[in-house]
Structure formats: structure tokens, C-alpha cells
Specification:
The protein has about 325 residues and is an alpha/beta fold. It has a single domain, classed as Phosphatidylinositol (PI) phosphodiesterase (TIM Barrel). It is about 45% helix and about 15% strand. The chain has twelve helices and nine strands. An eight-stranded parallel beta barrel has the order 1-2-4-5-6-7-8-9, surrounded by five helices. The protein is elongated, with a radius of gyration of 32 Å. The mean pLDDT is about 90. The structure holds 2-acetamido-2-deoxy-beta-D-glucopyranose. The site of 2-acetamido-2-deoxy-beta-D-glucopyranose has 4 residues, from loops. 2-acetamido-2-deoxy-beta-D-glucopyranose binds next to loops. It catalyses: a sn-glycero-3-phosphodiester + H2O = an alcohol + sn-glycerol 3-phosphate + H(+). Keywords: Glycerol metabolism, Membrane, Transmembrane, Transmembrane helix. One of its GO terms (molecular function) is glycerophosphodiester phosphodiesterase activity.
């Protein structure tokens, strides 16, 4: 109101204003002029604003779902493709390589006489039908005699447990990355384990090998002996205390392997800020797989790489279709 009153008082001072006002008077009353003005302002501001926010929200939803396309995580096959063959056998590795995984995680254990095998205690216990036997209880000869075809039928034909050296020689040039998950166990525990692993890596010229271990002292030992090597430590929840171990605890490590239910936006941000890559393990179901994509982790370790690849492919198609509908 005040503005209009002020204009009316001011106008007589500049002659032109009064004449113009008289000209419009027959067509519009003062109040209808105001109404039109408000309507114009409303139409000029609100619909564009409404659509702006609506579109922004829509874009946010799509971005949340599809941002990972710009930096897809490495698909890391846990012991090869263990849905199709016995874990950590040449067959499991071949299946994974055939489905073009980016990365293979190899479990590394040492025999009683000091030979490194691609073998997990859990899998040995299945082969040996002995729930307490550990890799370190057996000699190289005993492990080489084990035959996985006793428990897995219909494999490609290689029934033996590979040594770490044989495994690396056959897989490292077929994937972007090989993660060696070093297991510490009797009879030698950590003694000389870092050297043993590094010497196999050197012999096989595995340039894309990284080493991680649940044992911090082993990981630190690898960092000390091979400063150029990418090393990881593990973040998980302690079975006994229920407490998560510290997120930032090893300066020289470039990778952090995190038990996937612990991963959220904040954790990813904290590790990124320290230039550490986040590898999620072991993600075998669709919902956590999608969650890992949305959180933008660097790699996903899975026992079912083909399923994860299929899920990524489906999401990629959806995102591209929705992307097209936004642009038109
Ligand atoms: C299982 O393995 C342990 C360690 O090698 C051995 O002492 C034990 O006798 C085995 N048990 C059976 C039932 O073979």
C-alpha cells in the first residue's frame, strides 16, 4: 500500500506521470491493476521455482543411484569365482577371469615346512573333513596330495591346491589387481612371513599385487620391507569385545579392507581424506552390493562376482534410460 501512496504523491512533480495515469484509468481500476501485477509476479516466479526444485530432487535421486558409474568399484573375486568351483583353485580363478573381474583376492597360508599356498583354513577343513586342522599343520607334500574333487564335482579338471607362486603366475597378468590376504598361523606364525610373501611376489613379478592381513604387525612388516608395495589393514568388529578396531592406525597403508556392514558415508569420507582406498568385504547379497555402489567404495570383494557384475549392468542400463528421460 505504502508504495502506491508514495508514487501518487510523487508523480504530480514530474508532469508525464499524471498523463499516463489518466490514459489507463478507463480500462483498469487501481485494485485490478494490483491483482494483475500479483498474478504476473506469481506466474513468473512460482512455476519455474517449482519445476526447478522438482527437477533438482529428481536429479539428486538419480545421482545417488548412478554416481558410481563415473568411478565404478573394482569387482574383486574372493578366492576366484567360488560359486562355480572350489575357492582358491585354478578353476575358481579361471571362471573369475573369464567373467572379466577386475581383481582376485587370494588367501595365503604357510605350510609347516614354509611353503605358501593359496588356501584358507576353512577350505582345508572342508577338504580334509577335519574341523580343527590348519594349513600350518600340514607339510607341502601333504597339501599337494589333497584332492578337491572329493567334495566338489564337475570342475574344469584341476583338482589340486595351488601354491601361491603357481596361482600368481597364472592370474596376475589377467586382472588389474591381486589382493593377497595373508593368514598368520602355526607353527611359525609371523616369523619370516613378510619376507616369504615378498619373495614370491618378486619371483612372479606381480606388479599389481597388494598385501593385506588381519595382523597389523605383519602388515607393518611388509610396509617396512617394501615401501613401494601397496599394503592394507583390516577394519572389523572384534568377536569378543564387540568393538570396531581403529579406522586410522597405519600411516603407510594405502588400502583399508573394511567389513562391509561398518561402511557408511562418514567412514568413506574419513579414509578418503587420508588418501586411503576403501575395499569392502565380503559382499555376497544384492542389497549390500547396491549400498556399496552408492557409497562409492573403491573395490568390492565378493564370492559371487558374476552376480555383482549382473547387478551393476542392470543398474547401468536403468541409469542410462533415466538419464535420457531427464535430458529430453
Ligand atoms: C584333525 O587335524 C588335527 C591337526 O592336524 C589332528 O591332530 C587330528 O587328529 C585331526 N582329526 C581327525 C579326526 O582326523
Amino acid at each position: 500500500m505504502a508504495i502506491f501512496d508514495w508514487r501518487q504523491r510523487k508523480r504530480p512533480l514530474d508532469g508525464g506521470g499524471t498523463r499516463r495515469r489518466r490514459l489507463f484509468r478507463p480500462f483498469y481500476s487501481r485494485s485490478s491493476k494490483k491483482l494483475i501485477l500479483f498474478a504476473v509476479i506469481f506466474l513468473a516466479i512460482f512455476p519455474p521455482l517449482f519445476f526447478h526444485f522438482k527437477l533438482r530432487r529428481f536429479r539428486q535421486i538419480i545421482a545417488q543411484k548412478c554416481d558410481w558409474l563415473h568411478h565404478p568399484p573394482l569387482v574383486c573375486a574372493h578366492g576366484g569365482d567360488s560359486t562355480l568351483a572350489f575357492p582358491n583353485t585354478m578353476d575358481a580363478y579361471s571362471y573369475a577371469i573369464r567373467s572379466r573381474v577386475d581383481c582376485i583376492e587370494v588367501d595365503v597360508s604357510r605350510s609347516s615346512d614354509g611353503v605358501l599356498f593359496a588356501l584358507h583354513n576353512r577350505d582345508l577343513q572342508r577338504i580334509a573333513s577335519n574341523s580343527t586342522v590348519q594349513v600350518g599343520d600340514l607339510s607341502m607334500k601333504q597339501i599337494k596330495e589333497l584332492d578337491v574333487s572329493q567334495i566338489v564335482k564337475g570342475t574344469l579338471g584341476n583338482r589340486r591346491i595351488p601354491t601361491l607362486e603357481d596361482a600368481l603366475a597364472s592370474i596376475s597378468s589377467s586382472v588389474q589387481r591381486v589382493v593377497l590376504d595373508a593368514k598368520v598361523g602355526p607353527p611359525m606364525y609371523e616369523k619370516g612371513l613378510a619376507q616369504d610373501i615378498l619373495s614370491v611376489i618378486k619371483r612372479t613379478q606381480c606388479k599389481n599385487c597388494i598385501v593385506w592381513a588381519k595382523s597389523d604387525s605383519l602388515a607393518r612388516d611388509v610396509i617396512k620391507r617394501a615401501p613401494d608395495m601397496t599394503v592394507g589393514y583390516i577394519v572389523m568388529v572384534d568377536h569378543l569385545t564387540g568393538v570396531r578396531n581403529s579406522l586410522l592406525r597405519m600411516k603407510g597403508a594405502g588400502v583399508v579392507g573394511v567389513y562391509h556392514p561398518l561402511i557408511d558415508e562418514k567412514l568413506v569420507k574419513v579414509l578418503r581424506r587420508r588418501n586411503k582406498e576403501v575395499y569392502a568385504w565380503t559382499v555376497d547379497d544384492a542389497d549390500p552390493m547396491k549400498k556399496m555402489l552408492h557409497l562409492g567404495v573403491d573395490a568390492v570383494v565378493t564370492s559371487n562376482p558374476a552376480m555383482f557384475q549382473g547387478l551393476m549392468e542392470d543398474l547401468r542400463t536403468e541409469c542410462l534410460e533415466e538419464g535420457v528421460s531427464i535430458r529430453t
